Amino acid sequence: MSPADPWSGASIAFAPLLPWGLLVPLVGVAILVVLVALLRRARGAGWRLLAALVLALGLANPSLIQEKREPIKDVVVVVVDDSPSQSIGQRRARAEWALADLTAKLKTAPDLELRVVRAGGDESGTIHETHLFDALNRAMADVPRRRMAGAVLITDGQVHDIPDPVSKLAGIGPVHTLLTGDHDEGDRRIAIVQAPSYGLVGKSVDLTIRVDDMPGRQSPDAAVTLRQDGGAGRRFRVPVGRDFRIDLAITHGGQNVLELEVEAAAQELTLANNRAAVVVNGVRDRLRVLLVSGEPHAGERTWRNLLKADPAVDLVHFTILRPPEKQDGTPIRELSLIAFPIRELFEVKLDEFDLIIFDRYRRRGVLPQMYLENIADYVRKGGALLEASGQGYASPLSLYRTPLGSILPAAPTGRTLDQPFRPRVTDTGRRHPVTADLPGDRIDGEPAWGRWFHQVAVTPNSGTVVMQGADGHPLLVLDRVGKGRVAQLASDQIWLWSRGFEGGGPQAELLRRLAHWLMKEPELEENDLRTRVDGNRITVERRALEPDPRPVTLTTPSDETSPLTLTEDASGHATATVLAKAPGIYRVSDGTRTALAVVGTVNPPELADVRATGDRLNPVAKATRGGVHWIVDHQTGPRAGLDIRRTNPDRDQSGPTWIGLRANGDHTVTGVTDTPLVPVPALLVLALGALAWGWRREGR
């Protein structure tokens, strides 16, 4: 019923003057007596029957009940797919065209309420899948099912939250789908079938990939390029439609980003799914450390305790307990309990060590010059060396006067500084990850850690001074030599911190960071560009020893670029955050370094198959009596657009050129009128008259 005629729902109601339990038996007895009289052909029986019926009608007291009804609008929900796959081709433009067409037609219907919701473009979480039915359920959460006229989904058909079973959608009316893509689309994609989450540094891991051409094979094989950590690409051929195994070497600890890209096919919808990436965390099986102590001293135990406390460290400690120049007649063969394998350590197996530490070492002829030259070559090839200077470093027996002097960053001046001082972090050191934010460091005022009393005066020739000691002399110098790294500590008194002298200091944290920096852990790179991904939030981080105001360039999976300005803090740590609008691989570059961010799962369902299809939603249309239509088929012609019809619930809800929305006719009652149908007094008079006439007929 339309709003112009609000009166409907007329019905007859009874308000008996006697209880139904008494009225019905009385009327039944009266009718029975009259029927007996009729069977005996008694005179006046018909009038008595009329009197009984009139009397019964009067006692039943019928009335006409008429309700005043206010029609309630039916609700239709239009869900627009805003997921990343809608950016392909003309899909988004078609979606907006279809929405405008539907809105213009539905808003003119006086008995319809239109609700439009968008799904798939939410920036609050990780982009994994397209959830349209979640959005539909939220939009109709406050609407009773009897008011739902139906729903329209404007999408490419790649929906990942279809209810199972689809019978759960029963009662909401027809669910129609308007597809935004083109018929017979084709695409190529690369997927990672199997990838480990971690691997041992220096070992290889197996990665299984697959290249698929959809809908069918366009070529027997395809060229795939592999890049590791943004480096140079390695190209090889991969068969299409079959799993292919790749052997990859884990070169460093921390995140190893492996990026794969397959060449474009003859038919492509997007190149976003032609790339895939996986992050393999490199872990070290065992850290092999060679500690060479030049002489026994109080700090020797500090190094040993620190290294032995870590179960992942294999320590070989070589200590010179008795200098060769001591002449007491003891044969050389009896100077140690066992023959120490010097040749095996410093020549045969030197490359097997991850870190070499020289602690208070001076030239005494124990290690031949050739072995020290081996150590210098070991560093240049990628090894790590830490030198903690004792008094001997300022003497003619200094390590600096050996082949190691070519790789050590600081030269001795010949002086030692025997005075109390507190180690201080330099301005550059506050930007270096090894010494930045050390516990107890204070920018203004004295550091909150104990004093040292001895330091070797050195002059840095290269490297970076991150800590200074007495009278501002360099205390800790870090340097890169060839492919390796060197750290030099110009004092042997860090053990005072470990003993808690004057409150101690952050020796454990400092030495831990120092060892990890020497081991090239990515988290401790002083000049580095990296990304972190949390859901669809990408955080770009840049660390530099010198202020760098340059913006970085962000490249999306669809190869769109945009500048990104980073905000720097006092520690040289610059950050910026950006929200990813699509799953895939994002590149960040400052012109020198490149970092990758992998948004979404390893194989995002959103990019698994980007072809427009109605196959997923056909069961929904069948279960709800809806339809699946291609927008491109209705955009041209004299009657562009789909026809929209209001249909009865038991009729067809879709046709080749139209979609139906269920007309429920729901309403609310705003008033009721009660009109008596028969005047009781008149009925009583009529009943008495009929009885009297019947008696008169009987008396004749």
From TrEMBL:
Compositionally biased spans, kind Polar residues: 553-565
Record's keyword terms, sorted: Membrane, Transmembrane, Transmembrane helix
TM spans (from-to): 20-39, 46-65
Stretch list, region Disordered: 417-440, 545-566
Keyword Transmembrane helix: yes
InterPro entries membership: Class_I_gatase-like
Database matches in SUPFAM superfamilies: Class I glutamine amidotransferase-like
Domain of life according to the entry: Bacteria
Transmembrane helix as UniProt keyword: yes
Name of the protein described by the UniProt record: Glutamine amidotransferase domain-containing protein
